[in-house]
Amino acid sequence: MSSAPPILRLRGVRKRFGLDTALDGVDLDVRAGEVLAIMGPSGSGKSTLLHVLAGVYAPDEGSAHYLDTLVSELGEADRARLRLEEFGFVFQFGQLLPDLTALDNVALPLLIAGRPRRQAVRQAKSWLTQLGLADHAGKRPGELSGGQAQRVAIARALVTAPRIVFADEPTGSLDSLSAEQVMATLLELAKGTGATVVIVTHDPRVAAYADREVVVRDGRISGVGILA
């Protein structure tokens, strides 16, 4: 793992929101194929760090690279295209569209990317089947359990074959058993596709699934550890 080149690279990154400094001079490499956990107390800047890595936020100072692309110099439209084509996302509460079925939620990123509907639906069905949700494809998010909804979110994140999956507190709304099942499923499927995984969590049980962890405090990286 240590010889893998960085797929993401931050240098001297600062990000402010009004008078508050969320990130203060962050340097970080994320290696291709690794599972990285970002930990820290509430308000430490860990979610902001993930959003800068993912191109959701542009840093106010410093540079952010994805492979050879200087993401910090891209405009919002180009960053959005990069996220659509290269990245997948899993959020704490799934962020599924409530009026769409599980199948349509999973197919949506492919449709936005311009894939024919028949192809998008076929791929979405395949992912739902892999996740044991074939019988729930026609249900809306409100008809699913928390664990089922997060598995739909995982399918949506992976359906585009992303190079990187970003997960922001993916088990934060689940009980411990569902959390373990969701994490095991996410990492098994992501590693099967060769994706890099970046997870923000406050839960050491979730971080234990990672190869490496970084700890963020007061907008700075205060520690780095090898877990696997």
Automatic annotation (TrEMBL):
Q: Which GO terms describe its molecular function?
A: ATP binding
**Domain called ABC transporter: residue spans:** 8-228
Q: Which domain of life is it from?
A: Bacteria
Q: Which UniProt keywords apply?
A: ATP-binding, Nucleotide-binding, Transport
Q: Does the keyword Transmembrane apply?
A: no
Question: Sorted alphabetically, which Gene3D superfamilies does this protein's record hold?
Answer: P-loop containing nucleotide triphosphate hydrolases
User: Which one Pfam family would you cite for this protein?
Assistant: ABC_tran
User: Which InterPro entries does the entry mention?
Assistant: AAA+_ATPase, ABC_transporter-like_ATP-bd, ABC_transporter-like_CS, ABC_transpr_LolD-like, MacB-like_ATP-bd, P-loop_NTPase
Family annotation (PANTHER family): ABC TRANSPORTER RELATED, IMPORT ATP-BINDING PROTEIN
Q: What is this protein called?
A: ABC transporter ATP-binding protein
Q: Say which species the protein is native to.
A: Leucobacter iarius
